[in-house]
Amino acid sequence: MNIKVLGPGCMNCKTLEARTRDALNKLNIEATIEKVIDYSEILSFGLVRTPGLIIDNKIVVQGSVPTVEQLQNLIKQQII
Question: Would residue 10 show up in a list of annotated catalytic residues for this protein?
């Protein structure tokens, strides 16, 4: 599983990354997590609002910071 956290490095971006790591740990799933902070690269994904979360090249979060439980559900949906 390849995960990208998109955003300029603000507190919401850092929180999203930390919660994503926590959700993965609770699900016992290994994934590669990459931080994308370059605006042109963020725009290339079609993201309109940060922070954003992309799982296997699909935008699953945009402009919000879900709870760990919500992230667990999003991750599970991508596995199916």
Answer: yes
